[in-house]
Amino acid sequence: MKKSLLIILMALAGELSAQDIENRVITTAVPFLTISADARASGMGDMGVATSTDAFSQQWNPAKFAFAERKMGIGIGYTPYLSNTVSGIGLLNASYFNKINDQSAFAVNLRYFTLGEIELRDSFDDVGTIVKPNELSLDGSYSLKLSPTFSMAVAGRYIRSNLKFPSTSSIDAQPGSTFAVDVAGFYRSPEIAYNTFDGRWRAGFNISNIGGKIAYDQNGQNNFIPANLKFGVGFDFILDQDNVLGFTTEFNKLLVPTPQDFDGDGDLDAEDNDEYQSIGFLSGAFKSFGDAPDGFSEELKEITWALGAEYSYQQAFMFRAGYFNESDMKGYRKFFTMGAGFKFRSAQVDLSYLFSTSRITNPVENSLRFSLTFNLGEEFLND
Predict the structure, then answer these.
(1) CA distance 311 to 247
(2) Is the pLDDT of residue 63 over 70?
(3) Is the pLDDT assigned to residue 376 strictly greater than 60?
(4) At 309, is the secondary structure helix, strand, or coil?
(5) Which residues pair with 152 in a beta bridge?
(6) What b/e string do you get for 40-50 counting C-beta neighbours within 10 Å, with b at 16 or more?
(7) Which of 50, 157, 222, 230 could form a disulfide with 204 if both were Cys (CB 3.0 to 4.6 A apart)?
(8) pLDDT tens across 74-86, in order?
(9) d(CA 312, CA 238)
(10) What is the reported pTM?
């Protein structure tokens, strides 16, 4: 199916240099890495750094795998993208984890983002060329319990972005690629007896996608990838052996510098972009905590937050809801989510739906996301 060239330009938003000075939105290459890839997390406001372990924990917090309750798990998810505009664009995700023993686990994950088929033309009377732009990431992680209640993990990731194609104006175009690492931690308290219920605390952090920039041609600019800091906390109300109600909150901060008017001419132009892109990825991560032109108040606006809840009945039926908020100045993503899950033996099916509350249309609005999980092998109590 042929798509408009506009779609590929939208996907390359991370490579565009101009920014409105009143709306310093931080854009990066390979933004598909930030898309929620499973319906469970999507149903709780796109969060997962401090929720309980599942097969999709690789994206959110790989340290959670050390607390997995089954020997191994397989997760498959699909997220349709821009389905209100075109068809054939979406994110496929496949994940696998295996507990080595009660203290450690390893996991692998593959994400594949396709933009379908697009017809490219250099001129009106050009015959045209059909291309299939896509992006993917392949990563692995190792998690280890450092105590009965705390674990840490490291992950390595290969990223490939095939969005720019050779033409008469860009003969040296090539897929961009880079490597990145994650460092994560997860805390899960023992079950605590309160007056009328039992409870359990959860907390986690993940410093993800710390790695080199990405370029699409030999002399092109190097673009930041979405390095990110996530941290969150949650609590499970264990009402009885059948009913559990969990609440979680999460915060995110991109570890990418804020676009700047370096030359002070009142506009973010090509010269400003050249200086911006000259910043190294590691120094840029440190700069991101204090480089906003409007100071601390703008730094706070660069932090997104989410609230989520999950009710589980007999670990077989799950109902979820969540809310995600981003500053109007930094992207204006605001939405409610809801979701449900059904577990039968070792298989679990999850669904989620998103309702945007901002004036800007969300790419996954009015789309049903789903994922399938298999939990296999012996059980681990993790007590």
Answers:
(1) 9
(2) yes
(3) yes
(4) strand
(5) 144, 185
(6) bbbbbbbbbbb
(7) 50
(8) 999 999 887 777 7
(9) 10
(10) 0.89
